[in-house]
Amino acid sequence: MAADWPAYLALHESGELARRAERAHELLAECAICPRECRVDRLSGAVGYCGGGAQALVCSAGPHFGEERPLVGTGGSGTIFFASCNLHCVFCQNWDISHPDAPFASVGVEVDPRRLALIAKRLRLEGAANINYVGGDPTPNTWIIIESLRYLDINAPILWNSNMYLSMESMKLLLDLVDIWLPDFKYWSNECAARLSNVRGRIGYREAATRNHLLAARHGDMIIRHLVLPNHLECDTKPILRWIAENIKDRVLVNIMEQYRPEYLVARNPEKYPDIARRPTREEMMEAYRLADELGIVYRPVS
């Protein structure tokens, strides 16, 4: 699953890429990259809720063979892990890079757009099937990523690996720029999103996620990831699968993930999160798979 010719090269030739990079940069002055709309001036040194400032912090970069099979090819997916995230999931498995203020967090190395382009170019020349922006989350680093593509002078399919809690304007900047979308669809219940990921933006998680998934499905290849949480089939898993089936089933693959385990704050304080203080059972996973089969969702090749 990869584009024959990445969209950013055509947008660069037309001047549209520079325009989008400039607009993404402007959004940082009163940050509105995501629906939280912190409105802090990241260009003057302020840091948003996500932990992001004016530049990007990269914690690691290298080929990754653990992504979905269509994404890795023979050389792996060229992952670039950023040290920031606009969600604070209490069960985060990458908390050491997602939350720079957490104890023992990995700070990362500051990169500007040119250096980020060089990292991406090296990964691609070493055989990576695509350039996979992840984290943390790429969303707080939207400007750095778009600007870096102006200096990326090789064919490198762009993969956006994100929680999809982006503002509408950020989505517009990325459409026809991203070749492969690898979004999470975490919750259907806004109450669950607020309690477990501290989503407290101008619009709820469900509203942002459904809007952004619809847009992304019309612009590029797409694999949706849904992590099944224990005790959350009725409030989250089942309505998410039904929404996918009703709206974008024929455009996407869905990875119904069983990898959840209590991590981060849940592992430290299981009594505060009793509903997710265990792994999902086999019965819960089979119930999710059965519904996906009934709905005609294609999940087996990537789950």
Short description:
With 303 residues, the chain is α/β, with parallel strands linked by helices.
> Low-confidence segments, ≥5 residues, pLDDT <50?
none
Class by SSE composition: alpha/beta
Major sheet: 8 strands, mixed
N-to-C series of helices and strands: HHEHEHEHEHEHEHHEHEHH
How many strands? 8
Helix content: 25-40%
Average pLDDT, to the nearest integer? 93
Shape: globular
Radius of gyration: 18 Å
Q: How are the strands of the biggest sheet laid out side by side?
A: 3-1-2-4-5-6-7-8
Proportion of strand residues: 5-15%
N-end to C-end Cα span: 16 Å
Question: What features would you describe in this structure?
Answer:
An eight-stranded mixed β-sheet has the order 3-1-2-4-5-6-7-8. By secondary structure, it is of the alpha/beta class. The longest helix is centred in the last third of the chain and has 15 residues, at 233-247. It has twelve helices and eight strands.
Q: How are the elements arranged and paired?
A:
Blueprint: H1 7-14, H2 16-27, E1 56-64, H3 69-72, E2 77-82, H4 95-98, E3 109-111, H5 113-125, E4 131-134, H6 142-148, E5 158-162, H7 168-174, E6 180-183, H8 190-197, H9 205-217, E7 221-227, H10 233-247, E8 253-257, H11 264-268, H12 282-295
Parallel strand pairs: 2-4, 4-5, 5-6, 6-7, 7-8
Antiparallel strand pairs: 1-2, 1-3
Helix pairs in contact: 2-6, 5-6, 10-12
Which features does this protein show?
single chain; 8 strands; 303 residues
